Records
---
Amino acid sequence: MSDTRPNQATAAAADREAIRPFSIDVSDEELTDLRRRVSATKWPDRETDPSQGVRLEMIQALARYWATDYDWRTFEARFAALPHFTTEIDGVDIHFIHARSKHEDALPLIVTHGWPGSTIEQLKIIDPLTDPTSHGASAADAFHLVIPSLPGHGFSGKPTQTGWDPIRIARAWAVLMQRLGYTAYVAQGGDWGNAVTEQLALLKPPGLLGIHTNMPATVPPDVSKALATGGPKPEGLSADEDKAYEILKHFFATGVAYAQEMGNRPQTLYGIADSPVGLAAWMLDHDERSYELIERAFTGQPGGLTRDDVLDNVTHYWLTNTAISSARLYWESHLAFFDVKGVDIPVGVTVFPDELYPAPRSWAEKAYPKLVHFNRADKGGHFAAWEQPDTFSEEMRAAFRSLR
């Protein structure tokens, strides 16, 4: 009798690697428990200085709205209506949204989120990019969109072994695009999405035509060394370069504590897996400008984000229990976020004014010798696609137009 086990193993592997539809299933009990936990928050005393972190008045306003008026089901219906899929790559289930344009010759684009973002960041750009003619743009600028959840984030699987750094994720993205049948495509990312996208560019997988970033890694070695050591500022900086240097100096001095904690001891953060309000506060304090934008949404002066936008994302993290699994990416990665990586394929850069630092064009030209697009947007920050989807969408069209 012949042994059929090898054939069975091959079939099982093929089944795991298949592109499978994915559905979202959140029970009423989970939502009831969330509201109960929010209402039962034990509050500290008020801050003695606003610079100490997320203000008590603001987070209490968020909690009141979250516990009483916020409706996950409204968001869930809109989110679940999108084409969600999953496939196993390198032992981990990768969740992704795959929104194809009605224009068959559209350019495939894989867009990667960061932390504390998610695929929710990209929802507002799906229609403008896949259906440009309904948004005042040309059919020639259409995209097929692939929007994956990073491993350990959202509805993707949680790695049970170490090693899932941006380099490994980039390899997985190359497999994903090949598995989807795309032989020519472009890629985009900010925050961790930029780290993954630049590593994808360094891998140069077959079919990758170019990349775009809204958080470019352009800091020259001498500037990076001065920032890291506290040494003297490099001489000869232009006005734009000096501004970028001073903003980065301030950020490294006051704005990276969350990254240091997650980079060193992510498992210790049990509180953000147990307390919804703890999770919200941790996520909201990513950087000063983003926090100011989010705070305005809860004080009656909304900017690019609404209260529901903010809570859609935080609730998504809570319901998927990915507070700590997402934090591990900081532990896994040993890449310097802003240092030049040596990307030598075509690159587009958009500088949003409230990003962590405003990359000077002079640095971008040196970091990316094949810079095909550079623009400074009038407004927007770290979560550019989420905050300013119209501007972001136009930047995608402009950046990749020459690569079609």
---
Amino acid sequence: MSTTDSGTTHPSPHPSDGALAQSQLEKRLPTLLSVIAGMVDLTGFLTLGNIFTAHITGNLVLIAAFVVRGGRMNPAQVLAIPVFIIGVAAIWLLARASGRRGPGLARLLLLVQFLVLIGVLIFSVVTKPSANPHGLMAVITAMIAVSAMACQFALLRLALPVAPSTAVMTGNLTNTVLSLLDKQSRTQPLMAGDAERLTGSLYLLVGFFGGCVVAAAAVTYLGDWAWSVPVVLAGVAIALR
């Protein structure tokens, strides 16, 4: 005669609270972070001497062009690369020291990004770096902004590893085109989960572009106060955790 072991535990058919919170973050947060990245990137480009604060690859291209063709180069474009590396390393150390994972780590790093962006805003309003985009104050402002983006990139990889990049739009555009073609094809799709990938990539593309458009308007009408817009959205990101 068989007996039932009352001590045996069975997996719950419902996801745990932690898994549910992680899933919600992965769905809601990347698009908002993409808007913030677009704003920070374009605001820095327009006010700090054509530096890419979110697209470090763009600075590598500009440096290569300077090496070959010469001309005037913003020192911030060179410094952005080591500062980004140091920023990512600092976030890794912070994450390691905190002992947090998943949503808990995401909340911590969102707060760090928010505080760093506040630093960009305060420094920009006080020193008016846009008046001399190649000056020391502009370089310092740019490095603080690069640090904020380093935090965002590290946040995605450490706390939300499934989430796509919020700043590298080339990959998102590729995913969008391939997913759209798979969706329209009558044959077996070449990419798994094409519908979900298409939706996610489109949101990120629209979000980043929208952030750039809003940033351009903010720089036009607010000047150095334009950094207040990504600061507000970074605060919203914390609230959405």
